[in-house]
Amino acid sequence: MAQILAPSIQWQIKMTKNSSSARPITAKMWSSLLLNQKRKGAAKGSAKFRVFALQSESSTVNRLEDLLKLDTTPYTDKIIAEYIWIGGSGIDLRSKSRTISKPVEHPSELPKWNYDGSSTGQAPGEDSEVILYPQAIFKDPFRGGNNILVICDSYTPAGEPIPTNKRYRAAQIFSDPKVVQEVPWYGIEQEYTLLQTNVKWPLGWPIGAYPGPQGPYYCGVGADKSFGRDISDAHYKACLYSGINISGTNGEVMPGQWEYQVGPSVGIEAGDHIWCSRYILERITEQAGVVLTLDPKPIEGDWNGAGCHTNYSTKSMREEGGFEVIKKAILNLSLRHKEHISAYGEGNERRLTGKHETANINTFSWGVANRGCSIRVGRDTEKQGKDRRPASNMDPYVVTSLLAETTILWEPTLEAEALAAQKLSLKV
């Protein structure tokens, strides 16, 4: 039932220009309008009156919604698989659909597919075919039923991973016996900002102006403090439906900014779950008419940036004496600080300024319960470290595998280790 407000003297009817699907108002609809006008007769002198008109059951909008909600399961074994991959920028997501003859339970049951890499910045026009390899499956919260979302990575027709395929290298690291033995756990905190569609200004902010200063917005409640909660909640439920290991969500420090957490996840699974959760968030904001940005510093000035803090631990860290293993890992991370920073997201230098709960991008630091450090060790257990440096637009395949490589596989020279231990006041 649609609620309509109209002036009492002049009826205002908005019709879409040049629309072939526009329908005239029927006698039944006019009767409904006039009936409700008479019922409101006691409110004479009012500039407006409220009327109710029943939507036509045969309207185009209703038919479209019915088809979108249609469950095909009773009528066919065929399902729709949405193949998802990462585009040429390394952060843009692409997808397309295909019909599969029956439900599947593992990506190995799915066929490889291809796409035009010249249209995504991943191949030249004269040799544009790129091959998609299905790698992970999630339930499709948009189509429902047995339909699925498929996370893929990209290869040349000869079977070589293309340069933007970061999953391939990550899978190699996570399949190393030393890494497998350490069972690396990840908990990733994905921050994001919602923008108004036409002006690209944060949701809830006055256009061309600023809201009140930060303070009341973090985990805030109320129409003047929380902007976009429905999107956050819709995303939360969609991820749970899909099988993504989402563990929580909250409003962030800057108004219009949100965070959700995924994990604990083991190995390559962490990257698969984050990428699929980002895809779902893109689709939800698309439907809501809101723009999603993972820019690490969407608003310059005295506003918090957006990160993707990565919680990390290994089997050795979680066992008795694990704090000593953590300190050795911190030492290794300090020696590869520049290499990690260069892989932690484009534009991160605008966020890692030493202000707004960040460490300076050029300085490595660590501490227990210190939110301004590069690496924060939790006070409650001192058995898990959080890398606070990754930007919100980081590639989770790169960050998770680099952490495992640096802390499990990579060994510094004894001289470098001694100098770093002295500098960081670590006794390893």
**Broad CATH class of the largest domain:** Alpha Beta
Give the biggest beta sheet. Answer: 8 strands, mixed
Cα-to-Cα separation, first versus last residue: 69 Å
Task: Give the count of helical stretches.
Answer: 11
Q: Which CATH-level-2 architecture of the largest domain?
A: 2-Layer Sandwich
Mind telling me the C-alpha Rg? 26 Å
Remind me, CATH topology of the largest domain?
Creatine Kinase, Chain A, domain 2
Number of strands: 15
The residue ranges in which pLDDT falls below 50 over 5 or more consecutive positions are: 1-54
Q: What structural class should be given to the helix and strand makeup?
A: alpha+beta
- N-to-C series of helices and strands: EHEHEEEEEHHEHEEHEEHHHEEEHH
What shape does the CA trace take?
Answer: globular
Q: What proportion strand?
A: 15-25%
Count of structural domains: 3
- Bin the helical content: 25-40%
Mean pLDDT: 82
By CATH, the superfamily of the largest domain comes out as Glutamine synthetase/guanido kinase, catalytic domain
Keywords: ATP-binding, Chloroplast, Ligase, Nucleotide-binding, Plastid, Transit peptide
EC number: 6.3.1.2
Domain GS catalytic: 163-428
Organism: Nelumbo nucifera (Sacred lotus)
